[in-house]
Structures are given as C-alpha cells and as structure tokens.
Amino acid sequence: MRAVSARENCPRRASKRRNIVSRTQSRLTVIPSRPRRASTTSVSSTPPCTTTRNALAPFHAILDWTGLTFVIEQLSGVRISLQWGLLNSYPGLVLPLVATATGTFLYRQFYLTIPDELAEAAKMDGSGPARFWWDMLVPLSRPDMIALFTSMFVWAWNQYLWPLLVTTDPNFGIAVTELRTLIP
Hints:
The protein is mainly α. The protein is 52% helix and 5% strand.
C-alpha cells in the first residue's frame, strides 16, 4: 500500500523532488525518483488546475506527517482524502461568491436596528425564535435582500479571475470568460 501525496500528482513538482517516501505496514522504504529531463523552454506557466487542484494539501500533509491517515485507514478501512471537488462544477463557480463580507455587514447593521420591543411582543404572542425570524424579520429585510442580490450579482458578473481558476472544461464557460472567443 502506498501513501500518495498531492504533490506527486503534479507533473511540475515531480521533477523537483529527490526521493519518494512510501509507507507500508511494516517498514518505511525509499523509492528513487525518475531522472530529470532537460527543459527546452525557459518560461513555463502553471495551469490553473494545478494551482487550485487541492487547496487542502497542507492539511493533508499534516495528517500524513502525524500518521493519522495511516492509523485511520488501518482501523476503519477508510482512506482520508481532503478534496473539495469544486473544479469544473457549478458549485465551484457559485459557492465562493455567495458568502461575502458585504452581506454579513449589511445584515448585521439591519438586525441592530430591530427594536427589542418587537421581539418581546412576538414572545407575548407565543411565537418562538424561528417563527419570529420567519414571520417578522425576513419580510422586513426584503429590501436589504434585493439590494444585496443586485450588488452581488453585478460584482459576480464582473468576476474574471475566479472562473478562469475553477473551470478548465469549456462546458462550464460563463459569459465573461467566453467573450474572449469572439475576439479574432
């Protein structure tokens, strides 16, 4: 059984490592790496997928270093793989743009303006916290929802770098990144 780190999958970093360490059940063996190939080009660019392939690689390396992944795999038979799976997917395009500091600040400021008497009146009427939030606060915050949606939609529409990093498949192209195909 061989523990494979995230760096071994990256073709650019494979040439930089000296030895690959593999852990088996009884001993630790060192496997020499392949000899380096001569590079013909002096400038090379890393494709975005290798940069964002596994953002959790440092945490996975810590788990490997402490031996927790090996112990968990031996005890339960489940291999720990810390990956988000956001590349070439619609959640990868949408989720990072949903939670914003602007929305947090806007809603915090709105909820600070709600008088305590309104919550007390709702308690006297017999509504709990969830009903108070759904029946009172959500309708009152609709203008804030519309304002936040409008500003975040324009901000997300103008994003150019994030879709380039997250999508490598042309099927997940969005309008901003696909406009470059119109230019001859």
